[in-house]
Amino acid sequence: MHQVRRVSWIYAPALPDLAFAVRTAFAAIISLLIAMWMELDSPQWAPLTVWVVAQSSRGESLSKARWRIFGTLVGGVAAITLMAAFPQAPGLFFTCLSLWIGLCCALATLLDQYRAYGLVLTGFTSAIIATGAIAQPDDVFAISVARSSYIILGVLCEAVLAVMFMPRMVERARQQLLDRLADTFRATCAAITHSPGTPAGPEQQAMTGTLLKRIVTFSGQIEFSALELGPRNHVGDHARRALAGMLVMLAQARALQILHPGMTMPPRTDAARPEQALAAWLRDNAPAPDTPASPEWQPVTTALLSEATRVGREITACATAPRGDRFRFSLTSRRHMREAVNNGLRAAAAIMGACVIWEMTAWHHGPAFISFVALIYGLMATRENPLVATTPFLKGGLWCAATAAVLALWVIPAITAPEILLMALLVPMTVGGLAARRPQLAGYAFSFNMFLPVLIGPINQGRFDEISFLNNTMAFLASIMFVLLTYRLVVPFRMDVHVRRTEAWVSQRLRHLARLDTHTDATAWLASCASSLVRILFQANALPPSVLGACVARQIMSMTVGIHIIRLRELVREGQLPARAERIVTMFLARWDREQAAAMTPYVMVWTRHEQARATTPQARARMADVLACLHVITAGLHENPDIMA
After folding, report:
1. Other CB atoms closer than 10 Å to residue 547's CB: what's the count?
2. What count of Cα atoms within 13 Å lies in the side-chain half-sphere of residue 537?
3. What is the Cα–Cα distance from 495 to 371, expressed in whole angstroms?
4. What is the C-alpha radius of gyration for the chain, rounded to an integer number of angstroms?
5. How far apart are CA 361 and CA 357, in angstroms?
6. What secondary structure letter does DSSP report for 137?
C-alpha cells in the first residue's frame, strides 16, 4: 500500500494539477498538429516550446514566453551571422560558436528570473540553427525562420489555452497576491514574537532560514503577478517594498533579542492585525523604566513598529491601487562574477569538446549531439547548482527514451489519423504534466516533457526507422552524460568554496557600509544578503549541518549589525547628533571601515553612556540612546562572531 500511495499523484491528482497537466498536454498536441498541417519540416519543436513556457502561474508563462521569443530571434540572427562569417572554415566556426555560447551562459548568470533564460536561449538557439544548417549552409536563413515559426506557434497555443482555462485572471491574480502578502506578513510577525521562546541554536536558525527563503522567493516572483495585472500599475513596487520591510523587521527583532533577552512568548490570541499583536507584545515585554536596557529598547522598538506600519500601508496600496501612483521600488541581488566566469568557461569547453568528438568520429548524428549539448547547457546554466540538477534530468531522460521507444517503434507507425495521434500522446504528456507539479519529481518531468516529442519525431510523410531512432536517442542520452561529466571535471561547482566567497563578500560590504559616501540603505543591504543566504540554504544538503548552522548564524548576525552601521551613518550624515558625539561616531565609522573598530567599541559605549547622562534635553538623550543601542548590537555581533569582519 505504501508503494501504491507513492503514485497517488497519478490516479488521484489535485484539481489544479490535473487542470495544468491536461491544459498543457492539449496545447502541446494542438501545436504539433498545426505544425504538421502546415507541413513544417521539424514539427516536434512546437510542443517542446509549449512545455518550456508552460508554468503554474500565468505571469510566469507570459514572462518566459516573451523572453523565449526574444532569445529565439536574436539567436537566429547570431546563427546566420556565424554561418556567413566562416564559410568552409569549420575550426573557426566551432571556436566562435563555443565562445558565443560561453559568453551567453556567463552573462545569464548575472541576470535574474527569465531574463537569464532569454540570454541562454540566445546561445543554444544559435547552436541548434547552425548545426541544423551544417549540411545545407545556404538554407540557414530558411532554417532560422522555421525554428522561429515553431517557437511562436508553441507560445500562441499555450497562451490561447491558458486564457481559456483561466477566466477572470486579473481579479484572481490580485487576490492571490494580497493573500500571499498577508500570510507572509503574519508569518513574519509570528516569527518575531515566538523567537524568544526558541533557544538560539539550530531550531531558531531553521525557522529564520525558512522564513527568509519564503520572503526572497516571493520577492523574485512579484514581477509575474505584476504581468498578470496588466501594464501601467505599480502593485509590484508596493509588494516588493512590503517584503523588504519584512526583512528589516526580522533584523530589528534580532537586535531586540540582543538588547533584552528576557522576553517571553505571547499568549495565543486572535488579533485582527499582525502589527497590532506585535505592538501589544512589545508593550508587555518592555523593560522597566529604571533598568539599564530601557533607553536602548525604545529606538529599536520604535523602528520595528514603524517598519511594521509601513508594511501594512504597502499591502493596502497593493489592494487599493491609488490613482496617480508613481511609487517605484526595486532591489538588485548580488552579481556572482566568479560563478559567471566559471559558467562561461565550462559551457565553451563543453561545446568545443562536443565539436571535437564529432570531428574525430564523423558520427552521422554528431550535429544533433552538439545541439543537444548546447540545449542542455542552456537549460542548466542558470541553476543554483547545475551538477545537482543534471542528475534528475538524466533520470527523466531515461524515462523519456523508454516511453519514446514504445511510441516511436510500435504506436506511431500504426496511426493514420490526427485524432488517434492526439489520443496516443495525451496520456504520457498528462502524466508528465502531473509530475511537473510535484517538487520531488519536477527535475525528472523537466527532461521528460521537453524531449518526448523530439525523440518521437512525428512527421507527415514518414516515421523514424529503428536505426534513426536509436541514433537520435543515443545522441540525446550521450549529451546528458557528457554535460554531467563536464560539470564534474571542468571548473566544478563547490559549495564550500561558494560559502567562503559569499562570506568574504558580505564582510567586505559590511565594512564599506560605514563610509559616509555610501548610499546603500537597510532594505538594499538586507535584500542582497538574504538572497545570498537563501541560495546557500537551497543547497543545504551539500553542506554538513555544523557548517551550515555556523554559516546561517554569521550571515544573520552580519545582516543585523549592518543595519545598525547604516543607522549610525545616517545619524552622522543628517547632522542629528551633538557635535562631540558626531566626532566620536565619525571616528568609529572610519575605524570600522579599516577593520580597527573592534578594540575601541567598548570604550565608545562607555563614552556614549557618559554623554547620555550629561544630555540636557530629551531629544539629545533619545539620540544618544539610539547610538547606544546600535553600539550594543554591534558589540554583541563582534562578540558572537569575532571574524565577522575577516
Report:
1. 14
2. 23
3. 29
4. 29
5. 6
6. G
pTM: 0.82
Distance between CA 624 and CA 619 in Å, rounded?
9
Rounded Cα distance, 241 and 640, in Å: 30
Residue 372 in contact with residue 476, Cβ under 8 Å? yes
Is pLDDT above 60 for 458? yes
Lookup result for grid cell 519540416: 41
User: How many Cβ atoms are within 10 Å of 175's Cβ, its own excluded?
Assistant: 12
Confidence tier at 54 by pLDDT (50, 70, 90): confident
Please state, in angstroms and rounded to a whole number, the distance separating the CA atoms of residues 553 and 199. Answer: 13
Contact criterion met (CB below 8 Å) for 196 and 264 = yes
CA–CA dist 427, 485 (Å, integer): 33
Query: Which residue from 615, 611, 613, 608 is spatially nearest to 632, judged by alpha carbons?
Result: 608
If DSSP codes are grouped into helix, strand and coil, which group holds residue 385? coil
Eight-class DSSP state of 273: S
Instruction: List, for residues 145-162, the tens digit of each pLDDT value.
Output: 888 888 888 888 887 777
Biggest CA pair distance of the chain: 95
In this model, does residue 510 exceed pLDDT 70? yes
Instruction: For residue 358, give the nearest of 598, 98, 605, 594 by alpha carbon.
Output: 98
Phi, psi of 506 (to 5 degrees): -65, -45
